[in-house]
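#struct-help
A.M.: can someone run this one for me? Single chain, 247 residues.
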Amino acid sequence: MKFDRTMPGRGVDVTCRLENAKVYLEWKFYFTQEGTGMVRVRVTDRNGNVAMECLKSLQEEEPLEGILLQPHLWKGSKDPYMYVMEAILTDGKGNCLDRLHRQLPLRELRRGTSCSNGELLLNGEQFLPKVVKYTLSEGPSEAGQQRRMLEDMQYLVQLGANCVLVKEREPARLLLQFCELCDRWGILVFVMEGDVPEGYWAQDQDRKLWLRCDEVVPEYGGGEGGLFLPESQCPSSLYYKYKAKWR
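D.P.: on it. Structure tokens below:
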């Protein structure tokens, strides 16, 4: 038995809720098969200090929960702080069966009671989405794909974008890598259902919140009508228009 890395979050789905300067975390794990044993979760900060640790038997039906006091929250590009989560799967005798590592941004994205459909709250503060459509491109090698995404990310940050909109049919592995990169650069990812030219319904990358936008969203690259292509090093006039608007 191992963590099922083909499932969301490479085997673990994390829900984050903020309340009274505390973060309440809930984990849902996916396994390749059923079995007995334990899952231990350890959350550490950038300096390697343990911020939280909790344990759960696989026989327990309740989800694994934990509370983190005085958390350092993920605040987008101005402070994309990330914790590190380690999950250890052991059998009934305590032998390690599998180990899972991932970056963990602590954030709560929700819609406020006084907000319209297009407005969001990030960690309780109003968040104005500056959205760019983005198409993931599969290159000849994984290293080439990662290099291209990193170059694109630098252009998007310079533009002032804080959200990217991707299509649901993107390759799952590539989309996961892109989401992790966006977390590190302070950009939110929304996944679009369908392909509506003006207006869209999309979910955030954690699939917990829907976003509706009726404005035309600029497209990164895409030839004529797009912002620019990084290989050309020649941003379009539309790029400078949005940069002046967003920066």
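A.M.: thanks! Residues 134 and 214 are 17 Å apart (CA to CA).
D.P.: also worth noting: The two ends are 49 Å apart (CA to CA).
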